[in-house]
Specification:
The structure is a single chain. The chain has 160 residues and is α+β, with helices and mostly antiparallel strands. It contains 6 helices and 9 strands; from the N terminus they run αβαβαβαβαββαβββ.
């Protein structure tokens, strides 16, 4: 059971999760994916047509660039972050009967991250990215690059 492996946080709303996320870079996945992730030993770039728990990412900028997408909350609270953060909440895949895992990227790996600003420089307007909130890690992410994992489940009646 995941709760025995990772700290479990029960939330009623996204705001309950913010104290754990602010100032950090993290990847969110369904808890049901954990066995597959550990079998491979890393987070893989989505190169197939697998749907993301965040919707259809066939035209995701970081997917196109061969990156694993991460939420970047290092600028949490800035005006730019506030303007865009609602566009993709980490709790989006969290449903009444599901659980998510938040995988925090080690600070020693932050220098490898690619900024969303590459989307502007590349002028890839038809690709999706969340400015100021999303970043990409080039290639697969070894589990050794993950500093901490948080198991999140919701109390009843949570809205993303």
């Amino acid at each position: 059971m995941l709760g025995a492996i990772f700290p479990v946080v029960e939330i009623e709303s996204f705001n309950d999760l913010l104290p754990y996320l602010s100032g950090k870079v993290f990847h969110v996945t369904l808890a049901s994916n954990w066995d597959d992730i550990t079998a491979v030993g890393k987070l893989l770039v989505n190169t197939s047509d697998r749907l993301s728990p965040f919707g259809n990412t066939v035209n995701g900028y970081f997917r196109f660039k061969g990156c694993v997408s991460f939420f970047d909350y290092r600028a949490y609270g800035s005006a730019e972050w506030e303007d865009h953060s609602y566009k993709c909440l980490p709790t989006l895949p969290l449903e009444a009967q599901s659980h998510i895992l938040v995988l925090f990227l080690s600070q020693s790996e932050h220098h490898k991250l690619r900024s969303w600003e590459g989307w502007k420089q590349d002028q890839l307007w038809s690709y999706r990215v969340v400015p100021y909130v999303e970043c990409g890690y080039p290639g697969s992410v070894e589990l050794s690059a993950i500093q901490e994992v948080l198991h999140v489940r919701k109390k009843s009646n949570l809205t993303a």
